[in-house]
Amino acid sequence: MKERITLCGDNCIECSRYNAHSEAELKRVAELWYRVGWRDKVVTNEEITCSGCSSHKAGTYGLVDCIMKHSVEKCNQCEAFPCDNIMDMLERSKNL
């Protein structure tokens, strides 16, 4: 299986956001992410478009800020792993 692993360990190749390219696909992803609680509102297509993990993202788990604070590139490189941010992400994902 092809992989592209993110900060938290997710595989981008299986992510609806990463795979959404048309306006309609992006809108469906924004609506889905709102329904499952990953956003507090339906965001614009521009906001939901994936441009990779970076420090300007304001994700619901705070992982970008966290890895910068701990001077690591991926969560699993951190001494605190698995931390509350990761445990919260896993718990919320269980309920989807």
Automatic annotation (TrEMBL):
Pfam family, one: DUF3795
Superkingdom, taxonomy of origin: Bacteria
InterPro entries (UniProt xref): DUF3795 (IPR024227)
This protein's name: DUF3795 domain-containing protein
